[in-house]
């Protein structure tokens, strides 16, 4: 009896079966990787701002504490960007005629705040309170990265639900003394047991109820 199918049909059948069963898995895997990629989370994307503000210059170069500009982080859910008069408290004397800072001077003259492009823009269904995190011992660096090394600001961490939950499940890994909240590059003292021992002690001191941190209502209200 003559052969009906060419020998290559065996290969075609195997490839077809592989695509039939492996295709959906591959698509799901690709979608998951894309969802976690910097392209989706917008990490290290520098957005255009009305003024090219350098955290590296102001924090590392001049030693300005985060709370000088973000003055409400310890008392408010919203850290707020600094009002124009905060900028002009220095720049009315320093670089007072710089063309680069004309938008700041115009903002003060016109009484119109500068329109900064948000980098950390959480969905409306997510509740995040800066004051609680700061007062419980979470440093600025934990969420925003080493801003003192950023000539222009970018989003360092993914700020996904998975990323937040990892910290809520193991808060001891991120806690630090309150006097080190704004310190960039801070490291725990290894002679006292390192981060593990310090974190457990701070959980006790700051009355952090770890068992409640993964409750949905903590972030979704």
From TrEMBL:
It comes from the Bacteria. Residues 126-221 form the Cytochrome c7-like domain. SUPFAM superfamilies: Multiheme cytochromes (SSF48695). The keyword Lipid metabolism does not apply. Coiled coil: none annotated. InterPro entries: Cyt_c7-like, Multihaem_cyt_sf. The chain crosses the membrane at residues 12-34. Keywords: Membrane, Plasmid, Transmembrane, Transmembrane helix. Gene3D superfamilies: Cytochrome C3. Signal peptide: none annotated. Pfam families: Cytochrome_C7. This is Class III cytochrome C family protein. It comes from Aquisphaera giovannonii.
């Amino acid at each position: 009896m003559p052969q009906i199918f060419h020998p290559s049909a065996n290969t075609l059948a195997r490839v077809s079966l592989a695509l039939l069963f492996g295709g959906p898995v591959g698509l799901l895997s690709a979608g998951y990787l894309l969802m976690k990629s910097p392209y989706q989370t917008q990490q290290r994307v520098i957005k255009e701002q009305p003024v090219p503000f350098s955290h590296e210059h102001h924090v590392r170069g001049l030693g300005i504490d985060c709370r000088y500009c973000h003055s409400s982080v310890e008392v408010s859910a919203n850290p707020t960007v600094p009002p124009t008069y905060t900028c002009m408290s220095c720049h009315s004397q320093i670089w007072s005629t710089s063309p680069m800072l004309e938008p700041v001077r115009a903002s003060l003259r016109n009484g119109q705040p500068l329109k900064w492009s948000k980098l950390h823009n959480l969905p409306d269904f997510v509740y995040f309170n800066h004051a609680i995190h700061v007062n419980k011992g979470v440093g600025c660096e934990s969420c925003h990265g080493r801003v003192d090394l950023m000539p222009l600001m970018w989003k360092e961490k993914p700020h996904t639900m998975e990323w937040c939950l990892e910290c809520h499940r193991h808060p001891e890994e991120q806690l630090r003394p309150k006097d080190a909240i704004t310190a960039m590059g801070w490291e725990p003292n290894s002679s006292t047991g390192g981060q593990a021992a310090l974190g457990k002690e701070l959980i006790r001191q700051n009355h952090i109820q770890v068992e409640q941190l993964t409750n949905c209502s903590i972030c979704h209200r």
